Amino acid sequence: MNKLFNKRRSQHFLLLLRYWRLVFNDHFVIALFFLFGALAYGYSQLLPQLSPNQWRTRWVLVIWFTLIPQLGRLATLIKRPDPVFLLPQVSAIRHYLSSAKLYSLILGEIITVVGTFIALPFALTTEKLGTGAIVAIFLTAVVTKADWLHLTHKAITQRWGHQHRRTVLEYWANPLLAALATWLINPFVGLGVAVLLYIAVCCYYRDLDLDWRLAVQSEQDRMYSVYRFFNLFTDVPSVQGKTRRRHWADGVVNWLSIPNHPWSYLYARAFVRSTEVSGIIGRLTVLGMVIVFLLPAGWLNTVMVALFIYLIATQLMPLYDQYQANVFTHIYPVASGQQQEDFKQLLAKVTAVEAFLVALASVGWQLNWSQLLLNLVIAIIEVAILTRFYFSVRVKKLVK
Amino acid sequence: MALEIKNLVGGYSQLPVLKDVSLAVQPGELVGLIGLNGAGKSTTLNHIIGLLRPFSGSITLNGLTLQKNPEEYKKQIAYVPETPILYDELTLREHLELTMMAYQLNPDETWPRAKKLLKLFRLDNKLDWFPANFSKGMKQKVMICCAFMTNAKLLIVDEPFYGLDPLAVHDLLNLIAEKKKAGVGVLMSTHVLDTAQRYCDRFVLLANGKVQAHGTLDELRAAGDYDGESLDEIYLQLAKGDHHE
Predict the structure, then answer these.
(1) Chain A residue nearest residue B82, CA to CA
(2) What is the ipTM of this complex?
């Protein structure tokens, strides 16, 4: 069974590697680097403005350290047919799961340590921390993550798996208690609380016989969120999203579709009703609006507006070849260039609206009208370039 | 002459699946395309609807070819695929509307025809459903409605009986008979040989990418010394002979 896990782990790595390669091939990732760069820059600008020993900054730290352990789930790599094929392997599956847990623990701890490092400059500016305290903070985070992973393990067992609410409560309560003790009392007490909680969890949840149904379900959920992430950059076959009728949006559908153009008819409905496409465009628009609204006026604000318009346009483009695998795409008696023309129309309309919204939000809480005007002009030029020229370049890449 | 295929060599990649296939479908005629799994039935149909490009040979439809008049050629064909293929984001009503738009049909003239088909297949109260809510058989019926409401001169039907209930099979055969009366040629691939024997006017027996035999049932019997045997028996003999080669 150890062999089985190792084999699956390497398959899993290969799969992830393949997707990562696609991710790094994309222009989108350059935009993301910019986004992260801007966030890091904002963070470094924020630090000198903080004053030490404020209760507000302590709560920020408490929230941060409660959130970190929630990242990095238990990767069992269990597959759907396993309950049928591995059913007799009752004792061997324990070994399998302990390998899986070790693997997840290593990954989870890496995330935890990175998360703690990110928070450290913030904590050092606002609190007085010695070397011992810093070590205690790191240890607390590491122990809390181990505690959290033990909880995810017991959540897929026959004995404890059905206490769903209790498990969710523990996911949040245990890290919260440790973080409260760390930042409101002191880091050493925090470490004590974390260790005590971990021991308690390990002693109390000992009967860990696997519930196959829950295990398959939770692994599928986990893989689905991994795929959803990759789906931001490339097409993942298993992420399809759902279809919602959305009667209220019929006006939008009508506005988007050109009468008697079959492709336009199809794309308009696909855009509005597929939760995957409209969901990501909606989220990006709202996120972009919030960020440019909060950012102070200046070049960074304009760069962000341009960046979000680009992100929205590129996230919409894969819709173009969504129907390549459908036979009727090829046998409808429609002129071959019409598909591209109709999609361009949709792309232009949607991107223009979203660009307008983002540019509008860039007026900011300081109501900087000249910034708004500049961003609007840039947005109009960018939308024109993206839909006229950039899309044609992308299409050649999409349709091979 | 509705459809004429001459010396077609074709397939998916470099390796030809079809080796020198010739067949014809006359207006008002139902031709059964018969063959084992992998004999080349679907490949032949894919060439006709234009998904695949012939290596050599020609496919003409009332004098038109896909290369020279793609739109006019495609407008004459309606296709019912083996597995139903629907758009997840469109309701049943919108599938019909999209088909009308694609084939440039006048909605006022076409809707009554569509309504009749929907009623026949008991789909008339499901116009606002999404494909996700349909069963396999219902999806197949949607495909049939879309194809049969067009004015296409040639119907390409790939294994239409799978997943249909007996009543729907019966109705489909009646629809095909109606289309035939209106002068439409129908090319149908199938494994259901006794149904084929009763309804098809002519047969094309494919094996290993070649036309093994073709003609009416009597012609097949005469050609191979299968006196009085059913299509089923003739086909088994041919297939076995093919196996032993």
Answers:
(1) A327
(2) 0.86
Instruction: Give A240 to chain B, closest Cα distance, Å.
Output: 10
Nearest-by-Cβ selection for A333 from B74, B87, B130: B74
Polymer length in residues for chain A: 400
Indicate whether A27 pLDDT > 70: no
Lowest mean pLDDT among A182-186, A395-399, B41-45, B202-206: A395-399
Residue A272, CB half-sphere, CA atoms under 13 Å: how many?
21
Pick among A271, A331, A342 to test the B interface (most B CBs inside 10 A): A331
Band of residue B212 on the pLDDT scale cut at 50, 70, 90:
confident
> Are B85 and A327 a contacting pair at CB < 8 A?
yes
Q: Which of A192, A189, A9, A190 is nearest to A99 (CA)?
A: A9
How far, rounded to the nearest angstrom, does the alpha carbon of residue A177 sit from its chain's CA centroid?
A: 26
pTM above 0.90, yes or no: no
Nearest to A121 by CA among A34, A45, A36: A45
pLDDT tens digit sequence for A197-229: 999 999 999 888 888 889 998 998 898 888 878
Smallest Cα distance from A309 to chain B, Å: 26
Of B51, B72, B101, the CB nearest to A327: B51
- Contacts for A104 with CB less than 8 Å, ≥ 6 apart: A72, A73, A74, A75, A149, A152
